[in-house]
Structure prediction request, 343 residues.
Amino acid sequence: MNKKKILITGGAGYIGSHTCVVLMQAGFEIVVLDNFCNSSEIALTRVKKIVGRDFKHYVLDVRDTDSLRNVFAVEKPFAVIHFAGLKSVNESIDQALNYYDNNIAGTLSLLKVMKESQVYKLIFSSSATVYQQSTIMPIAENSLLSACQPYGQSKLMIEEIIRDIVKVDANWQVAILRYFNPVGNHESGLIGEAPCGKPNNLLPLISQVASGELANLSIFGNDYPTLDGTGVRDYVHVMDLAKGHVAALQAIESWHEALPLTVNLGTGRGYSVLEMIHAFEAASAKVIPYKMVGRRAGDLAVCLADPSLAATLLDWQAKESIEKICADTWLWQSMNPQGYTEI
Ligand code: NAD
Ligand code: UFG
Prediction:
């Protein structure tokens, strides 16, 4: 039994809640910190139900440095997994200040308190959006970096901050994980992605069309240089992603070369929008009506991870199929048509 306590910021969110399950099932103790700005406390109740164990959580903004200090003093975490942040590319364009404040000031507050408390182990949630758009596919970690919207910029700036502090202080043991397209949910259907308002991402939109909540799906472009003309992405099951965090926690402890350890979490295999629709139709036995509309500004034709470094350094590989992803998503949608409500 591993009794190490992990502090999870943003632990009530989509990826955080799944990581809570996986960490507890791997024997870690957890404590969650979240201000619920994009999540529900019910997610944490559901995590407890899945795992059959209790844990403490703090309703706190990570930018509240004084309160954060108290949490560290009381909880004495062994390591931190930092999910807390705002994540919508579109919203970040209209709310740049809010995004920079939440994501960057939030991370600075956390890093300061970690240093003061001598807690130096950190796993940070980054994104494929930090790679320069013209880069060669699949994307390796040493590809050129640049971001063209505030959300991506905030992730890139945080990565730079982490690289700077790690360079001059050998105490830090940090992993930066660059996620590709997280999808799916726990197979119980008890936890999943519950976006506040209308979703932006493909899978939540497809599920809402399947359940009749939305009339149809708009496909953003069918003239890309791909198999069927629609955009291709690297969809990774969130349970696989969650396991990547446990693997990263184990890896940073024994890693003695240059830090931060920076790895892609993706599958290396791409699916087009039409392939996703067909897979979802098969999983749900529903027809997904769609219409072709113009390309969405800023979209790439293809975005694929080179996942080989994660296999080498973390001994991690995504395992779940697209069929499983669609089946799990449909179960979550069917059991929770209004997102998280009391049951
Ligand atoms: P999410 O919005 O579901 O979860 C984020 C959680 O952080 C929410 O529970 C929210 O309430 C909390 N939070 C936000 N700001 C906070 C603050 N200042 N203080 C305390 N809590 C705060 O998002 P997610 O999909 O679970 O993403 C988790 C992390 O992974 C984010 O940092 C996101 O940028 C990153 N990421 C997500 C994706 C994706 O497609 N889901 C892709 C790449 C990277
Ligand atoms: N798509 C549609 N119709 C929709 C929504 C999406 O056709 O209504 C298409 C997109 O054009 C794209 C694919 O479905 O080809 C996936 O789109 P998502 O919005 O689900 O995902 P993206 O890859 O565009 O964006 C994701 C995250 C961003 C992150 C980016 C790069 O949502 O936060 O990956 O990592 F910045």
Observations:
- Residues 220 and 295 are 4 Å apart (CA to CA).
